[in-house]
Amino acid sequence: MKREYAPELIEQAHKATIFHEKDILASSVCTCFYCGYQFDPHKEEDLEWLDETNPKGRTLVCPMCGIDCIVGDASGFPITDDAFIHACTEAWFGGYSRISEGMPIGKITIIPIEVE
Ligand SMILES: [Zn+2]
């Protein structure tokens, strides 16, 4: 059964991908809305945060793909529902994500480009 999610909910979930340190630390599962990686933030090693000095809280980047598009279950969004995840990737990335392209979860290696 395909469930529909309101555009407002998807918009709100997008806002939960930044400055969400408190939500992430209160969550037992987090989902990356770019690559689909799901993890327990308390078991994952070497979490990388952005916005170190932002008073609203830091922003977690995905341990797998490095994109700052993580939402934790403490945010109240149905982050483990495939239909919700797909609806979000469609809205946020215009369908260009590892999830919507059906690519497996995997580490993305960023190759630094040397400029001479
Ligand atoms: Zn990811």
Please give the count of helices.
3
Principal-axis shape: globular
Order of helices and strands: HHEEEEEH
Number of strands: 5
Which structural category do the helix and sheet elements fall into?
alpha+beta
Low-pLDDT runs of 5+ residues are none
What does this structure look like?
With 116 residues, this protein is of the alpha+beta class. The protein has one domain. The protein contains three helices and five strands. It has a three-stranded antiparallel sheet. A two-stranded antiparallel sheet has the order 3-4. Helix 1 (7-15) crosses helix 3 (82-93). The radius of gyration is 14 Å and the shape is globular. The N and C termini lie far apart (55 Å). The structure holds zinc ion. Zinc ion binds at residues 32, 34-35, 37, 62, 64-65, 67. Zinc ion is lined by residues 32, 34-35, 37, 62, 64-65, 67.
